[in-house]
Design goal:
single chain, about 500 residues, alpha/beta, Ribosomal Protein S5, domain 2, 2 domains, five-stranded parallel beta sheet, four-stranded mixed beta sheet, about 15% strand, elongated
Length: about 500
């Protein structure tokens, strides 16, 4: 008897429906074809034990299973239940009349329990697109799949529940999630706040500008000055994600298997902070079986690189193109996958190996030339993609001991949202451009016009401070954001003056 069941394969952040054809005939043999990997081939043994411990068995006949389309590689253990239900239906151990109505996915334990799988959200989206009645999957993945409306999501604890469901002996309660309610209820959940940070008002201002325009920023200062503490609070002042961004972010984390069991939808902007020993593949994505890297997991959020000069140069260099194009393509001989990488880069570094160059109280112990060599670990093209350079100084005792409450993230966020709305209106006719940091050269010429006083100020600054040519466009972009925060249609000299001070590393005098 021939029976068809349906599973799904995830490629990039999208899914492709896999048809599992099970044919049982006279003879003794078990053949699994259709480009399965080792984990799929091993499923025979897991299925055999799981069915035996549930009161069923793989029939001792000739079984041929084809996983179509045959030119797509099938990977992982998520097809265990798809294959098992197909074998039971083809051998007439269960009723086969409804098995074709559902996408069936799940890894089997030897006792028949169902273990969670990766990539459930794109699988559910594809199932709805192809008008399947529903999806049957492990209970641990049910909330994640329930984000997709108009699709019956049945979460089971073990394969016995699925067998009884198809035989009509029992039902599986559908998992229902109000996506919009879930989104709005958890939109403002944060464990940290800007009010936790004592002093550093000038640094907070710089980070507010960074968040308002989507500008990449680097924090330079001695150990213990609060660089990491400030960086971790940046997501709390970024504009809240819209529902489309939340779904897009959740898809990426779903493919990587990073969705928590109790959370269906990711509502907060991601904050990723990889260690400096990370490899280039782990950062940008890839591997034998491509997976999203840290820059994709930070999509719509913040990528924080602490101690930037300690990262391997090759790791940082592979990040340059994805930062510019906001997408990374992982190519292999047979296929290529795309992952989105629209993130805000926040980096931090000590000014020198000992950490105390330019410190107001402690002397730098580094030999001549060491400071410049330390900075040279970061390439010019990468620094060129960082708009704001912020010098962080240690907090004084009077500020640390001050009991007065500091400004909260909520108040800062309100100003950031207003500035972003101005930019949204400005770029509404430019698809793919959402904030000032993304402006092209033509847009800079159009939206960043400055008067004669501003031109004179900028010229003086570039001559006296020795600012590089690449700093020119960055200063204009940042000054445009400062003007937006001030609700000013034109860029004034005071906006330019503030933007100029955020180009520390471009000065010829930096590092002696």
């Amino acid at each position: 008897m021939l029976v068809k069941t349906f599973g799904s394969a995830v490629q990039g952040v999208d899914a492709t429906t896999i048809t599992v054809e099970v044919n049982i005939d006279k003879g003794i043999n078990f053949s699994l074809v259709g480009l399965p990997d080792s984990a799929v081939k091993e499923s025979q043994h897991r299925i055999d034990a799981a069915l035996a411990n549930t009161g069923y068995k793989i029939p001792g006949k000739k079984i041929i299973i084809n996983m179509a389309p045959a030119d797509i590689r099938k990977e992982g253990s998520a097809y265990d239940m798809t294959l098992a239900i197909g074998i039971l239906a083809a051998s007439e151990q269960i009723d086969s009349s409804r098995v074709g109505d559902y996408i069936i996915m799940g890894e089997l334990a030897l006792d028949g329990a169902l273990r969670p799988v990766k990539g459930v959200l794109p699988i559910a989206i594809q199932a709805r697109k192809e008008k399947f009645k529903g999806i049957i999957l492990p209970k641990a993945n049910a909330l994640e799949a329930a984000i997709v409306s108009d699709l019956e999501v049945l979460g089971a604890q073990n394969i016995k529940e699925v067998i009884d469901f198809f035989d009509g002996k029992s039902t599986i309660e559908p998992t229902i999630l109000d996506t919009r309610e879930e989104f709005y209820n958890r939109l403002n959940e944060f464990d940290v706040d800007f009010s936790d940070v004592k002093g550093q008002e000038n640094i907070k201002r710089a980070l507010e500008i960074s968040a308002s325009g989507g500008h990449n920023a680097i924090l330079i200062g001695p150990p213990g000055a609060g660089k990491t503490m400030l960086a971790k609070r940046i997501p709390t002042i970024l504009p809240p994600m819209n529902l489309h961004e939340a779904l897009e972010t959740t898809k990426i984390h779903s493919v990587a298997g990073r969705i928590k069991d109790d959370h269906g939808l990711i509502t907060g902007r991601p904050f990723r902070s990889p260690h400096h020993t990370i490899s280039d593949v782990a950062l940008v994505g890839g591997g034998s079986f491509p997976q999203p890297g840290e820059i994709s997991l930070a999509h719509n959020g913040v990528l924080f690189l602490d101690e930037l000069p300690e990262f391997k140069r090759t790791v940082l260099e592979v990040m340059r193109q994805p930062m510019e194009e906001r997408r990374v393509t992982i190519s292999r001989a047979r296929f290529s996958v795309d992952y989105p990488t629209s993130f805000m880069l926040i980096a931090s570094m000590n000014p020198c190996p000992c950490g105390y160059y330019n410190h107001p109280e402690k002397d730098c112990m580094c030999a001549p030339g060491v400071v410049q060599n330390y900075l040279n670990k970061i390439s010019g093209p990468l620094l060129d993609r960082i708009d704001i350079h912020i010098e962080v100084t240690p907090v004084k005792f009077d500020e640390l001991s001050d009991k007065r409450p500091a400004e909260s993230s909520h108040d800062v966020r309100e100003r950031v949202i207003k500035a972003r709305l101005v930019q949204e209106e400005r770029f509404k006719k430019s698809p793919g451009i959402y904030c000032n940091a993304q402006m092209t050269k033509q847009m800079i010429n159009q939206y960043c016009e400055i008067d004669q006083a501003g031109q004179a100020l900028l010229k003086r600054a570039m001559e006296r401070l020795g600012l590089s040519a690449r700093a020119y466009d960055r200063i204009l972009k940042v000054s445009r954001t400062i003007a937006d925060l001030a609700n000013s249609e034109n860029i004034l000299a005071e906006h330019l003056a503030e933007a100029i001070q955020y180009r520390s590393l471009d000065r010829d005098s930096w590092a002696g």
